[in-house]
Amino acid sequence: MTPNRITSLLSIPCYRIVDGRTQYGLLDCQESKLRFHKRETGEESIPIYKIESADINEEGGVLTLTFLSRFGLLTFYCDSNISKERATRLVHAIQGEIEQHRKASYRTTPFYKVETQAQVDDWKPDTCKVEVYKQEMFIHTPDREYRIPATSIKELQWRSIFRSLVLYWQTEEGTLRALFYGLVARKLHAYLRALQDGSIRGHWTGSLRSTLQWDVLLVSSSKSLYITTLSPISILFSSLTQRIPFETISMAKYGIRGLHLQSLAGHHYHFIPHKSPLFNARRICQHFARFGRTYAKESVSTAYRWLPTREIHRGILHIEEKQLRFSYHQRDREDDCWNYQQLSRDDDGDSNKEFLSLRAGVESIRIQPSKGVSFLEYFHEKTKLPHHRLYWQELSTSAKKRIVHNAVAHIHSNRLNQNLMAKLLFVSGKIVVQPLSSSKVTQFTDVSVEFNTPTGRYTFQSYISPT
């Protein structure tokens, strides 16, 4: 692009000094690049993701723009007629681009890094370095570095005869392509399929047990699991990367023998991680247990029930008027229903905030709704379940007295809609009500009683009879 075709509102006339020579031109930020359009020799640019910081200073009445990049410090001097406000707008725009790229691609340790023979762009075989990150991929050739964001991937072509992978991605220059071979190609196919879903969440190596047992790579995206074989013999005749969408997983079981998955179609997968089978099998379950279809109703959510037997079942959780219902996706299982009168909360300050933790008698219930915290807040607001249920007949006399004696209670008549503040006394095995006001509640009226103690808030249903 030549200087007379630049029409950026954020372009700044400036100059820089290189090897004692002054170069004049326009500095702007477009297409995720910092670009300097020199009057004499055309454009030079640097991608925003290679810039660490951008600052503006004033030295001797001259506005100075400095950029710390991977190549060193870049310094530009603004023309004397440029206002500080205008130069600041450009710097802020660049700082915003830098922050956006940092959020989109948090480059720490790559999921996959390899040096291999490949053909990039011009189809000339060359040694290149490949790095795959959470939301992007980099190809480093001797002449150039290619950045491939997840959103720029257009197509993946697997050539079975040559066991090779062709990657097509979109750039400002047009569509570019790269060709990879052998085992590297198979691994990249799994990683790139995950990138096409938006991002890579995790990866594991292990064995896939079926008729035979193969070494495989399992990659988790935000929507699916991808499995590709790594065993040299299996590569000759096994199928390409298998995709298991999260929405098709109906049941999973994890343990020291790895992970067993069952799909809605009845397919079974037995994956044994090479390292820490129990820990990593559970980690994989945590990846897909957050996924679910979105329902418009506040009271309905895709959910996963975690059982003490280390089984996880996918289904739909319904918050109904009088009960909580979990419908399994497996057709051969009946719904689980719990009446609110038999449920109590089983969570505390240290509990996982993504789980609905309940107890029904001796049964422990752990359900993870895909709607997350908002669904749990709606459930607790609607049901107002207690943390514990005490059965009066099962309490000892001393326990009864310790709970209710001398407690100040709020008593509400359910039938007459009357309220009464009273003191409760435990006398001869009965609760005696001493009103603290002139209001009276009709005898034999069904009432709700609520009072606070140092150990918590108590509520119960009862009735008042004459003494």
Computed structural class: alpha+beta
Residue runs with pLDDT of under 50 for 5 or more positions: 1-7
Please estimate the helix content. 10-25%
Gross geometry: flat
As a whole number of angstroms, the C-alpha radius of gyration is: 33 Å
Main beta-sheet annotation: 14 strands, antiparallel
Tally the helices: 6
How many extended strands? 33
**Termini distance?**
98 Å
**Could you tell me the mean pLDDT?**
84
Per DSSP, what share of the residues sits in E-state strands of 2 or more residues?
Answer: over 45%
Can you walk through the features of this model?
This protein is of the alpha+beta class and 467 residues long. It has helices at 84-104, 182-196, 232-237, 277-288, 373-383, 397-404, and strands spanning 12-18, 21-30, 33-38, 42-47, 51-59, 62-69, 72-78, 112-120, 125-132, 136-140, 145-149, 153-159, 164-171, 174-181, 200-209, 213-221, 224-229, 242-245, 249-255, 258-263, 268-273, 300-306, 311-319, 323-328, 336-339, 343-345, 356-360, 363-369, 407-413, 419-427, 430-435, 446-453, 456-463. The strands form four sheets. Strands 15, 16, 17, 18, 19, 20, 21, 22, 23, 24, 25, 26, 27 and 28 form a 14-stranded antiparallel beta sheet that branches. The chain has a seven-stranded antiparallel beta sheet with strand order 4-3-2-1-7-6-5, covered by helices on one side.
Note the main attributes of this structure.
467 residues; alpha+beta; 14-stranded antiparallel sheet; 7-stranded antiparallel sheet; 6 helices; 33 strands; flat; disordered N terminus
Task: Give the gist of this structure.
Helix content is 16%, strand content 49%. The chain is α+β, with helices and mostly antiparallel strands.
